[in-house]
Fold this sequence. Notes:
Blueprint: E1 2-4, E2 10-11, E3 26-27, E4 36-39, H1 45-53, E5 58-62, E6 71-77, E7 92-94, E8 97-102, H2 108-128, H3 132-138
Antiparallel strand pairs: 1-2, 1-4, 3-4, 5-6, 6-8, 7-8
Helix pairs in contact: 1-2
Amino acid sequence: MLICSKCYEIYNEYSKFVKKDIENYINCPKVNCVGILLEIDELIAPTIILLNKKGFITKYCCSGHWYEDLLQIYISFDKDIKISKSPPEGFELKDNVLSYTNTDKLKMMKKYNLIIKMNKILYKWAKELQSEKQSIIMG
Length: 139
């Protein structure tokens, strides 16, 4: 799916956005929006939108892939972002990358269910984070 980096509008039809600018970005089609469209895994998109709206600017992410041997779920934050809250259980926060890794040999459905479970945990954690914007106002 494609999500605008400024207005957070979600676009599902890639074929509508074949025209890219000179830097190879797809500009948001919304009038007066200066955002660019970013490709984000559907499962982690609500978490990424929430984090960015709260001021925790992300760079890249992955919700995990059930068809790969190594299960990795991660969010990389902008270098200037400071996260004081402990990472959710099972996740690690190192060098501004929040990640979960599982090397167990799991059957496809178990891995799929684990990916869903860990992404729910990640979303709950993001909901509990105090907004950077709020913390600045609150002093």
